[in-house]
Amino acid sequence: MKKTLLILMFLSFLSNSCKEKNNSEINEKEKIETIELNTKSSENKVLIDSFRVLKDSVIIPEFAIKINLSEKAKAKLKKDNESTIVQAYFTGIPKDTLDSDYQKWGEKNIGQHRIELWDSKIAHFKNVKISKKALEDLSDTNFEVLINVFSGRHSTDSNILDCGVLQASIDKVKGKTHLINGKLLFGE
Question: So what's the pLDDT on residue 49?
Answer without folding.
Answer: 55
